[in-house]
Amino acid sequence: EVQKHSVHTLVFRSLKRTHDMFVADNAKPIPLDEESHKVKMAVKLRTEYGSVLHMPTLKENLREKGGPNTGDPYGHKQYSGNQGQELEYLITGTHPYPPGPGVALTADTKVQRMPSESAAQSLAVALPASQSRMDANRTAAGVGDIYRHAGISERSQPPGMSVAMVEAGGNKNTALMAKKAPTMPKPQWHPPWKLYRVISGHLGWVRCIAVEPGNQWFVTGSADRTIKIWDLASGKLKLSLTGHISTVRGVIVSARSPYLFSCGEDKQVKCWDLEYNKVIRHYHGHLSAVYGLDLHPTIDVLVTCSRDSTARIWDVRTKASVHTLSGHTNAVATVKCQAAEPQIITGSHDTTIRLWDLVAGKTRVTLTNHKKSVRAVVLHPRHYTFASGSPDNIKQWKFPDGNFIQNLSGHNAIINTLAVNSDGVLVSGADNGTMHLWDWRTGYNFQRVHAAVQPGSLDSESGIFACVFDQSESRLLTAEADKTIKVYKEDDTATEETHPVSWKPEIIKRKRF
């Protein structure tokens, strides 16, 4: 009598029988079928690299593999541009293809185009030099390399090597190498800054500050409608200028002429002659309060920004409005000029930053990464980069296209002002009176300052409206809501041992966007 078993038992018995039959072959690799492997590799090659298979192949790569024929098991034909000369590149032809739709691809019907000799030669000439030639021609690092690698002491390869690899056609297969997980570089040590002078004299909030190019004095503008000039060394008042009928929001001293420019909430932009201490020019055109101004470093052009959502470019001499930069949809809070393109950068309460073409008077790039008002923008004095400050983040960008570099997170307040010096110390001043100091390259916050308000002021009056380094970059001046100007300097007694960098790479993370 046949014993009846459940389907479950029978399936398991069958599995066991199968396992016993093939137990000797268990975990053995399947023998490689040459033909199918060739097909598989050809498919892979076409799928992964189909778009670049027609491009030139480096000859030195082929030489390592034993020549063009031995290095190509799949029968792709090679063609050298000029057989008589030692060319750097071999120019390959197209893949074989049928002469028309519906025609089978056979040895008789296939068509294969080869480049003409002249085209091959012109392509070889246009291509960048190989790695070996670049190594032979390389001299000391250029200025661009020095700027690009400034402060990176742990560099293990000569400047330009990584760039050269790309320029040489990526012949090290960099695209195929596994990428390392990004790690935070160790920040450069900076001595802490300490408060050493508080200057009082204004009767209202001090809204703006600028140091003259000779580093002898500095100028401040205030909500008391006055502009005051102070001696930088002693902190004594030298001069008061009256003329604005509302808060003075911006001041700047020209390096090209003995002029001081100011702007205010009275819609006025004034040019003061410092030899006579009088207003000699007015620039009329803004329809609302003027929030900031900057001078072009190489040409006699003044740029102002206003609550009327525009920035205006003025000819300093003729007082003519050269361009009205329109495009922002809310008040423009800050404007900066530089000699290189883009020559004008604006930050606005519409949360965007715009990079402008000065000649055309049009926007080159609009950066929309910030989520809140951009009240401050600062350009690095040496690198081709800039930073923008907003309550959501401080962001760093690359010129000329405004490529995002990194976020500097942690200053959770309304950031009114940014300043940076050549050592890579970035300062952010906020509405709540806090000031954070950052290492520019790594974005590490190495110091936080909250100075006490002037006796007699309310604690709520502790905002920082503007900050600037003097020309020697050894002093930092801040314009504050307690009606004072505070002067900071580096602590000369501090060392890396007494003030170590409390830096943990696993904690400090760079957020993207």
UniProtKB/TrEMBL annotation:
Swiss-Prot/TrEMBL GO biological process terms: mRNA splicing, via spliceosome
GO cellular component: catalytic step 2 spliceosome; precatalytic spliceosome; Prp19 complex
SMART domains: WD40 (SM00320)
Subunit-level organization: Identified in the spliceosome C complex. Component of the PRP19-CDC5L splicing complex composed of a core complex comprising a homotetramer of PRPF19, CDC5L, PLRG1 and BCAS2, and at least three less stably associated proteins CTNNBL1, CWC15 and HSPA8. Interacts (via its WD40 repeat domain) directly with CDC5L (via its C-terminal); the interaction is required for mRNA splicing but not for spliceosome assembly. Component of the minor spliceosome, which splices U12-type introns. Within this complex, interacts with CRIPT. Also interacts directly in the complex with BCAS2 and PRPF19.
Family: Belongs to the WD repeat PRL1/PRL2 family.
InterPro entries recorded: Prp46/PLRG1-like, WD40/YVTN_repeat-like_dom_sf, WD40_PAC1, WD40_repeat_CS, WD40_repeat_dom_sf, WD40_rpt
Superkingdom of the source species: Eukaryota
Name of protein: Pleiotropic regulator 1
Function: Involved in pre-mRNA splicing as component of the spliceosome. Component of the PRP19-CDC5L complex that forms an integral part of the spliceosome and is required for activating pre-mRNA splicing. As a component of the minor spliceosome, involved in the splicing of U12-type introns in pre-mRNAs.
UniProt keyword Amino-acid biosynthesis, yes or no: no
Species classification: Eukaryota, Metazoa, Chordata, Craniata, Vertebrata
